[in-house]
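User: Sequence in, structure out. Go.
Assistant: Echoing your sequence, followed by the structure tokens.
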Amino acid sequence: MSVADVKKSAQERMTKSLETLRADLAKVRTGRAHTGILDHVTVDYYGNPTPINQVANLTLVDARTIGVQPFEKKMAAAIEKAIRDADLGLNPAAQGDVIRVPTPPLTEERRKEMVKLVKSEAEDAKIAVRNIRRDANESLKKLVKDKAISEDDERRAIDDVQKVTDKFIADVDKMVAEKEKEVLTV
């Protein structure tokens, strides 16, 4: 393994951590409805847990309502139950073939809880990025110990890894600030 491999691996893993944070933040509810809220809901489809978007068409009816159109009519009750049991604070209502899922407006207290959740997700992402930095630095130290690189090369590489880490931490902070603003906007 070379210095370039260590840096590339660290950068790829940090990018994955950032993508995971982005996906986790998408699940956090804001005042508006969006179909991403239901992404992790699974429906019992003939005995198999299946993501809701594979058994129904998700659309936005208006700013506060999600429309769920099951591909099979007999799945409507199972989908409605899955949404209710997902612990999202949503109360779906069947209207003919379509299940309407109104998203209630968030109270100030609930918004503050959401901000705490967002900050917690951010801290987890920062910890993941720092752990990746630690692993990269240990790999570099091992290369020096194995006499594959010089100590000067190691110092330069550690500085480069730190710069990449700082960039990703700044990206995490930026994403969290945007999500906080979105959550707190009434």
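User: And one key feature?
Assistant: The mean pLDDT is 88.
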